[in-house]
Design brief:
The complex is a heterodimer. By secondary structure, chain A is mainly alpha-helical. Chain A has 25 helices and three strands. In chain A, strands 2-1-3 form a three-stranded antiparallel β-sheet. In chain A, helix 10 crosses helix 13, helix 11 packs across helix 14 and helix 16 runs parallel beside helix 20. The longest helix of chain A has about 30 residues. Chain A is globular. Chain B is an all-alpha fold. In chain B, about 75% of the residues lie in helices and about 0% in strands. Chain B is built from four helices and no strands. The longest helix of chain B has about 30 residues. The chains are: A mainly alpha, B mainly alpha. Chains A and B meet through helix 9, helix 10 and helix 13 of A and helix 2, helix 3 and helix 4 of B.
Chain lengths: ~525, ~120
């Protein structure tokens, strides 16, 4: 009990911060209200610090499935949530605060600032809880905690009708997905008689994976597919991203996706892919491998082809986020291999998630930074179509170049972070014998060039139609800072690829007892293997 | 009659034959049927409230399966899981009704196809 509390210290820090924010957001003093974002920031920094300093060896005795994943994933999540928080500043209550500043009486009922930031923290907390899950019940609750606050964040992100429409679409498909993976979890429990992930892994190792477990796992994968926006549960993505304001869309592109991939990694690990065919073990059961294969190929292709057909930047980025989920699924199919740098698909997926968080955030941040007056009113509107980006490198050099760098990195252009992330996925897929999948991925990367280069050329080339209304930079300097910081990180993180990837490999290594449980696993790759490859 | 009391009856089985013959598979069949009804309803109906009730039906189908499996494996994990599922279902119901009310105020309809501003 005490050990579990020790494990979730970062979440407790976030919970306390969220509770304070909810109260502070109702204050009558404007200065106190604006402290909300600062309290959130402090909460995230403290959570990140606690996550990074939690003593790992003591966790390992707690017998989680992947004990090393906990500090790694939580530190990563806290680090990625900080720039998202910067982006979220000024999203809600902006017009209301203007009216209050002009002398209207402040009515706490009408202010949404407190809830908005608190829901953001709750959602981040849900992602962290996914990482520390050791039980199906915990996993279910963590996934729901990640998603439920985001439905409300979408609904209140702008006062426009389309935000509410987006929230309803998001919620209904979300509930559908949740019911799917819950039913899958029920079947997994039925097949093994336990909800503890570690005992499930032992049961699969001893008795093999039965039909009920395979069907349950398929339901769980499809349901979690909603969180990562994978085919066939991707329909909501473009509508929801377009309807939500850009900062909230940036959060949606990261938090549920991270939660979904952490869940998939944990679930698939219980099937004992720690012993792959390459080292003599059984690997993933064939039906699950085929299902994941088809899912990954379809997700990549649908995402990229649909993105070409779009004119709205947010819809392009939404379909690109679908496509990137497909790439990350490739790493999951490849599995941990022998745990080395080029063969570890799980670590490649985690690394891709990290890179994707950085570069995708930059692209959304540009949308959040450039605003213009809506026609016929003095409300602020975001830029919408690719045409609105034209000449951005000349009018707003910092933001324009952020868009150029981030789009190139998303494309996987050689010297940038996105290239290395994709490279690791390729090598892991090839070394796991998934050559056709690697080819599909290569073709898709080529298709993706089409629309990413459209973003790049729109921002870079200076052939702006002067009759169009021009955009101006948002008054919230935090957003610009977040945009530039994420663009810089796609370059600044390059020297740290080695250590980051090594940390990822350590994170996905399973301790010896799990790997030894299956009697027919000849050479269980363990932390020792990962340590050997570090050298 | 609630599901849990049915399960208790099946275990105690005062009638010779009767409920004693209700096995795990009967529960699983009912649960699968509920789940399929929920899926079909969700995909075919266009009224927001009915669609939400269909997702509730899917949740409760999973709950029924959990309880049946818990009884089968003779542990309480399934029952504990169901308590949490009910809590989440209640939270989702609150959220769903709030959203539906919000939308109804602005368009005076519950038809999902009336909401098509976002297309592309």
């Amino acid at each position: 009990m005490a050990l579990k509390l020790e494990l979730i210290r970062p979440e407790i820090a976030l919970f306390i911060a969220a509770c304070i924010v909810m109260i502070v957001g109702l204050s009558k003093q404007h200065a106190t209200r604006t402290a909300c974002a600062w309290i959130c920031g402090v909460g995230l920094v403290v959570a990140g610090f606690l996550a990074a300093t939690t003593p790992v060896p003591r966790i390992a005795t707690g017998a989680g499935l992947m004990p090393e994943l906990i500090p790694y994933a939580k530190t990563l999540i806290a680090a990625a949530a900080l720039p998202i928080l910067l982006l979220l500043t000024g999203t809600v209550d902006r017009d209301y605060e203007h009216r209050v500043a002009r002398g209207e009486r402040f009515d706490p009922i009408r202010a949404t600032r407190g809830e908005f930031y608190a829901f953001f923290l709750f959602s981040v907390m849900g992602v962290m809880l996914c990482a520390s899950a050791d039980d199906l019940i915990w996993l279910f609750l963590a996934l729901e905690l990640t998603s439920l606050p985001t439905y409300i964040m979408v609904a209140i992100s702008t006062s426009r009708l389309r935000s509410q429409e987006a929230a309803v679409k998001y919620f209904f498909l979300g509930a559908f997905g949740a019911a799917m993976f819950l039913y899958g979890f029920a079947m997994l429990y039925g097949a093994t008689g336990t909800t503890m992930l570690l005992q499930m892994a032992r049961s699969f190792g001893e008795h093999g994976v039965g039909t009920l477990a395979v069907v349950g796992m398929l339901f769980a994968i499809i349901g979690v597919g909603f969180k990562i926006a994978a085919v066939p549960m991707h329909f909501y993505t473009p509508d929801v991203y377009q309807g939500a304001s850009a900062p909230v869309a940036a959060h949606l592109a990261f938090a549920p996706k991270a939660a979904g991939f952490l869940t998939l990694i944990l679930l698939l690990t219980t099937l004992g892919w720690s012993a792959l065919p390459a080292v003599g073990g059984p690997g993933l059961p064939e039906p699950i491998r085929v299902a994941l294969w088809v899912m990954a190929a379809l997700t990549m292709t649908v995402g990229n082809v649909m993105a070409i057909l779009q004119t709205s930047i947010k819809r392009i980025l939404a379909y690109s986020s679908v496509a990137h989920s497909g790439y990350m699924l490739v790493g999951l199919i490849a599995g941990p291999g022998d745990g080395s740098l080029w063969r570890n698909g799980l670590a490649a997926s985690l690394f891709y998630l990290l890179s994707y968080a950085a570069m995708n955030l930059g692209a959304f941040a540009v949308l959040a930074c450039v605003e213009r007056r809506a026609r016929g009113s003095d409300e602020h509107a975001e830029i919408e179509t690719v045409e609105d980006l034209r000449g951005l490198c000349r009018t707003q050099p910092a933001l324009g170049w952020t868009m150029v760098v981030c789009a190139l990195s998303l494309l996987g252009f050689p010297p940038l972070l996105g290239f290395f992330a994709k490279l690791f996925l390729f090598t892991s897929a090839i070394s796991a014998g998934e050559l056709p999948l690697a080819v599909v991925m290569g073709v898709n990367s080529a298709i993706a060039a089409f629309y990413y280069l459209r973003l790049v050329s729109a921002a870079y080339f200076d052939d702006r139609d002067e009759r169009l209304p021009s955009g101006h930079v948002t008054p919230f300097s935090g957003r610009v800072f977040a945009a530039v910081a994420s663009a810089l990180s796609t370059v600044a993180l390059l020297p740290f690829i080695g250590p980051l990837h090594a940390a990822g490999r350590r994170a996905v290594s399973t301790p010896a007892p799990v790997a030894q449980a299956p009697a027919d696993a000849h050479a269980p790759p363990t932390r020792a293997a990962a340590a050997a490859s570090d050298r | 009659m609630s599901i849990s009391s049915l399960a208790a009856l099946a275990a105690a089985a005062p009638l010779e034959g009767g409920l004693r013959q209700v096995t795990l598979y009967h529960y699983l069949f009912v649960s699968a049927a509920m789940f399929c009804l929920g899926v079909v309803g969700f995909l075919t109906r266009r009224n927001l409230i009915i669609m939400f009730l269909c997702t509730e039906l899917m949740f409760q189908a999973a709950g029924l399966a959990l309880i049946a499996f818990g009884r089968y494996h003779l542990n309480f994990t399934g029952d504990v899981f169901v308590i949490f599922v009910l809590t989440i279902a209640a939270a989702e119901a609150a959220l769903a009704l709030a959203l539906v009310v919000l939308l109804f105020r602005r368009k005076e309809t519950l038809d999902a196809s009336a909401w098509a501003e976002l297309r592309g």
